[in-house]
Design a protein that fits this description.
alpha+beta, Polyketide_cyclase/dehydratase, Polyketide cyclase, START-like_dom_sf
Length: 142
Amino acid sequence: MTKEIKTEILINASPEKVWGVLTDFEAYPSWNPFIKSLTGDVAVGNTISVRIQPPNGSGMTFSPKVLHFEKNKKFQWKGKLLFEGLFDGEHVFELIDNGDGTTLFKQSETFNGIFVYLFNTKNTTSGFEKMNQKLKELAEKP
């Protein structure tokens, strides 16, 4: 079984500016309403530590592996609960340059594994949307 969350928001800023805010991981505790912390050496193949706190949900810390990290374009990781196949999540941040000074920011996650049927995506979707909005606000500041 698979469940997927897809969100997007148009940001009136260049991909470089959006990327700068998105990858300033040390600042996450001060602005990010969903990802409370992200630490570690963010490079393809490395394991990082991520703490999320969905609205109206309990927080959790996990250690995903970085699958893709392309400056100003895409950041992707894959996490798992205990071991692969129980409850896995592949998270993607994607920046699309519209060529007019704006960026389409997409945040998505695909969940699969034997426990996916127990997962309600409502709080996590809300967390993505709140994070997207705050990212937009910060990136659009002069």
